[in-house]
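Q: Here's a chain of 178 amino acids. Please give me its 3D structure as tokens.
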Amino acid sequence: MKTSYLVSAAVKLALGILFVILKAEVVGICITLLGVALLVMGIIDLVHNDIAGGIVKIVLAAAVTLIGWLLLEVALIVLGIVLLVNSILDIVKIIMTAVKNKGANILAVVLGLIEPALALVASVFLITSRGTAIEWTVIIAGIVLIVNGLIALLRALVPENSTTQITEIEVEYTEKSE
């Protein structure tokens, strides 16, 4: 059990550090590796006389490798547009509700507007900043992996009975809060 935590910690820390250092290059590496894997599978299919499967996989390998970045950027723009529309609708809904309820608490309205306003800013960022959005997404994923790796490392280093006690405390706290 401790070994699995150590392996998990090492993998997560290594990936997290690579994500933070290499940023958007990690996405390019993954796209290239996927393209190479599809190409190899296609060649294997051709060798085993599965002509149709081999050709399809080789064509997919070329498509993934050649237009992988374009599709990623298009996906981020579409996500940005959806987020933009959703945040505008949320802002309008909150303002309309506040106007309808003339005695609405101003602080509650302002606090309610924070999340959709941040989503609005994030949507504009996704729509307008091509490669930067990808880089920041990979950096954030890298930081999350590093934190998860450190937690796994702590679990590996803490004696098992301490981990059990911590889990029991978490379960007890969860039951009380429900």
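Q: Can you summarize the key feature?
A: The first helix runs from residue 2 to 22.
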